Amino acid sequence: MMTPQQLYLSAVLDKRLTNTQGQLLGKVCDLTITPDEEFPIVNQVLVRRGKATYAVEWSKVVLFNPAVISVASSESELTSYRETPGEIRVKRDILDKQIVDVNGAKVVRVNDLKLGRHKNSLCLFSVDVGFRGLLRRMGYERVWSLVQRDIPEREIGWQFVGHLEPNAARLTLTMARENMAEMHPADLAHIISRVPRQNVHTVLNSLDDETAGEAIHELEPELRTRIITELDSERASDILEEMSPDEAADVLGDLPVEKAEELLGLMEPEDAEEIQELLVHEEDCAGGMMNNDFISIPAGLTVGQALKEVRLQAPEVDSVYYAYILDKNEHPLGVVSLKELLIQDEVCPVAEVMTENLKTVPVDAEPEEILEVIAKYNLVAVPVLDEHKKMAGIVTVDDILERFLPLALKHKRHPAY
User: Fold this and answer.
1) Contact 367, 404 (CB under 8 A)
2) How far apart are CA 249 and CA 103, in angstroms?
């Protein structure tokens, strides 16, 4: 069987297929492939003849190149094509489908596919997601090259591509799971908002709970509500547990009450309690914006003891810029920055280096008031006090700035699908 070392799918689609006697049998309309350890192997050539589709086993192919496609079969030997479960058709199931390009942090379209010989078989080597592939498929590649500079190839090797759906009729593609997990949450959110709705949950299933939570919080509220609602409740609650309490409260606050209560009931009691404390407050006040996870240390410690306490609490806390010194009744006595703790002698009492004139806001403070305090005193975070002057949480500068960003900038990268 004569096949070029490499060729593109676009070069053989709709080409005439003849037998060795030159009799026209039809036109190539697709190829079927089966997975292999390295590359998918082509096992059938599908031929369109009138309105009927026939299948020719690859073992019958004699010549297969853009100029001549010939098979050792007569017209009477053609068999009607019958799809088998799990079978993948290259044109129908891969061409024009979407693929997650983690390097570019975006969803791109498969414009062409590169085929070639490997271990005496015709295999699928890579997918072309570039402009050149689109031009080639449209038949304009050579014309374009005469008037424009060389167009770079943008191909992704099949070894870096995996199926998201076992049913090939709904095939979408993604990059390796470990690469997805390394992406910035905002980039992941952008990708999630672009893939077809039926594949969103499969993308999330390729992520661990913490990474999925970070990405979901970056989504526009309408979209993240829809995703959480449609997710399996156990998985949704696991993801929410990995989010910071204020982020989880943001998500749950947008859900129907019954759904929010269901998810809270599936969470660990301690995590659920922290989130419920935030849900009782109005969204546009300090209580609704604050995070009740913060570094707190008791009075009377030395710097060395305080650093040990910070190390113990830090894995569960998002903001570790400040450590707040509280009395036994949880009233704030002062604050010390992590930088200050690191540069002081370990035997020095924290009381000697902490700032006592603590700037705070009440739990019902409005966003404008919080912003004014943060801006005036150049704070990274401001403590929130409840009606008993106990420390209830902190509002960080990014939390408050998000409230004042123009709507066009908020969630700009991840609109609803």
Assistant:
1) yes
2) 32
Looking at the structure, do residues 246 and 330 belong to the same domain, yes or no? no
Look at residue 147 and tell me if it is in a domain.
no
Rounded to 5°, angle at Cα 224 from 218 and 229: 155
Q: Which residues contact 25 (CB under 8 A, 6 or more apart)?
A: 17, 18, 19, 47, 49, 54, 56, 71, 73, 75, 78
DSSP H/E element including 307: helix 303-313
Contact criterion met (CB below 8 Å) for 31 and 57: no
Is 34 a domain residue?
Answer: yes
- Convert the pLDDT of each residue in 285-315 to its tens digit: 999 889 888 999 999 999 999 999 999 999 8
pLDDT tens column, 108-156: 778 899 998 887 788 888 888 877 767 777 766 555 555 556 666 677 7
399 in a structural domain: yes
Segment holding 388, helix H or strand E: none
Q: Which of the listed residues 231, 261, 280 is the one where a domain comes to its end?
A: 280
Nearest to 104 by CA among 171, 159, 154: 154
What range does the domain containing 233 cover? Answer: 176-280
Tell whether 261 is covered by a domain: yes
Do 58 and 123 contact (CB within 8 A), yes or no? no
Pair (188, 260) in one structural domain: yes
pLDDT recorded at residue 153: 67
**Is the separation of the CB atoms in 285 and 366 below 8 Å?**
yes
pLDDT in tens, 4-20: 678 899 989 999 999 98
Hey, is 245 helix, strand or coil?
A: helix
Q: Comparing C-alpha atoms, which of 147, 130, 197, 185 is closest to residue 398?
A: 185
H/E element, 288: helix 286-289
pLDDT, position 34: 82
Residues 106, 209: Cα–Cα separation, whole Å: 21
Instruction: Evaluate whether 175 touches 100 at the Cβ level (below 8 Å).
Output: yes
Q: What are phi and psi of 57, to 5 degrees?
A: -60, 145
Residue 389: DSSP 8-state? S
At 331, the pLDDT band (50, 70, 90 cuts) reads very high
Q: Which of 90, 105, 122 is the last residue of a domain?
A: 90
The model's pTM is 0.55
